[in-house]
């Protein structure tokens, strides 16, 4: 069973930073592609960025330079650090994983954590 649990969401002011955490098994952290997605009600879930099994990271253009995805195998954790947050970053953020490196990287999902950015 692939289980992932996100945490770290909350309410912040525009311009502030927030770090989301996704706890998963050691095997997933070490061998799976992992990604962060976000979803606003009424809109499609959209990718934020991903980290391949070898540690290579990719980000969508809107998050480049403002976010960092990293892993800490000792803590079985995936992180999404977001800086200079904007109201349009408000969304439910999901951790995702996949056995294969790809642009999708979304075969398994966490339950999500809400981020709200106020202007």
What does this structure look like?
This protein has 119 residues and is mainly beta. Helices cover 5% and strands 48% of the residues. Strands 2, 4, 5, 6, 9, 10 and 11 form a 7-stranded mixed β-sheet that branches. The longest helix is centred in the N-terminal third of the chain and has 6 residues, at 26-31. The protein is globular, with a radius of gyration of 13 Å. The mean pLDDT is 95.
Topology (elements, then pairings):
Elements (H helix, E strand, L loop, with lengths): L4 E3 L2 E4 L4 E6 L2 H6 L1 E7 L6 E6 L5 E3 L7 E6 L4 E6 L8 E8 L9 E2 L3 E6 L1
Parallel strand pairs: 2-11
Antiparallel strand pairs: 1-3, 3-8, 4-5, 4-9, 5-6, 7-8, 9-10, 9-11
Number of strands: 11
Secondary-structure-based class equals mainly beta
Helix content: under 10%
- What is the tally of helical segments? 1
**Parts with pLDDT < 50 across at least 5 consecutive residues:** none
What would you call the shape? Answer: globular
Q: Roughly what is the average pLDDT, rounded to an integer?
A: 95
Summary keywords:
single chain; 119 residues; mainly beta; 7-stranded mixed beta sheet; 1 helix; 11 strands; globular
Short characterization:
The protein is 5% helix and 48% strand. It is built from one helix and eleven strands; from the N terminus they run βββαββββββββ.
